[in-house]
Amino acid sequence: MRTGIVFHPKYLEHEQSPTHPERRERLAYTLDQLIEEGIFDIDRIMMIQPRKASLDEILEVHEPEYIEFLKKESEKGGIIDYDTNIPVGVFETAILSAGGALKAAEIVADGLVRNAFAMIRPPGHHAKPYTGAGFCYLNNMAIMVKFLQKKGFERVLILDWDAHHGDGTQEIFYEDDSVLFISTHQMPLYPGTGYPDETGKGKGEGYTINIPLPPGTSDEEYLLVFDTIIEPVAKEFDPDFIAVSAGQDNHFTDPITDLALTARGYGELMKRAVNLAEKLCNGRIVAILEGGYSVEHALPYTNLAIISALADLDLDFIREPESYLSQLRWRKRSYAAEKVRDNIREVKSLHSRYWRSLRTDG
Ligand SMILES: [Zn+2]
Questions:
Q1: Is the pTM of the predicted complex or chain greater than 0.90?
Q2: What is the pLDDT of residues 154-168, one digit of tens each?
Q3: Domains defined along the chain, listed by start
Q4: Which residues of 297-327 are buried (b: 16+ CB within 10 A; e: fewer)?
Q5: How far apart are the CA of 135 and the centre of ligand 1, in A?
Q6: Which of 106, 181, 298, 309 could form a disulfide with 270 if both were Cys (CB 3.0 to 4.6 A apart)?
């Protein structure tokens, strides 16, 4: 069983501004940590170079007018929204980032590795067909899923556990019954969507499942959501491929969110997702990096946890930044557990008409 890590030094170049949360150090520090832990010395872990996404592959998701705009603005610099400007040259990095996701899918689909982590940036899950948004330019996840479907993996489960709702990905597959989109995200938080009653439309009705989480949600509740909603529905959907929008901004040290997941918690979550893939689709799972802005104190550890779970390494060595344990205690909220249970009940009641597996107990 081999695990691929897709990475390119060009992912360290993109920068909106030195103080922007989505900055180059996100991956620079991670890389240092992975080297320090000897991850690349492990035989079953392979470092893989990305390729560029082709225009045709991008146009499966995005509108030609937007791509033309992005390409043109990228030559001189421009702006999409308050959070998302267009630095010179971002188009080239964005197609290499989307291509990183494609490469990860390719090596898993072709059996070169069992599973893979696309350690890419810029991220993608807020990007919509007609615009970028929220630090995202191209929807890497959606471009990858369309590619997989062309390769014959028709039914794809997208698990988006970034702290922010993956509104772009949701919109792209909202009327599609071949893609099951399940998102956990903090609420309230940007972009303000992701309510449980957003369940899909037309033949896609029931194939969008939103599970909002209150500030202070910690490991136990994440795992409860996984066990009570994600796992049963995933089994019932029976995907050919699992794709994870792995946002690492749920960590208790993240500066722009209020959740309380630990690095070890990330490892446990990813392990469950890997086990699901082993049971349902011959182990085929790709994780794509989305957010995660605790650049120094969390992202290197959470990325390490994701890789360790994919590569079936012992998770015992995954640690938290020690001096931050008091911060974890401060971030955790006693009311969160109860609120998460309420939200689980609400999601189950809304979705029990679509999913038999959610009809039992309360
Ligand atoms: Zn995020």
A1: yes
A2: 999 999 999 999 999
A3: 3-358 (3.40.800.20)
A4: bbbbbbbbbbbbbbbebebeebebbeebeee
A5: 9
A6: 309
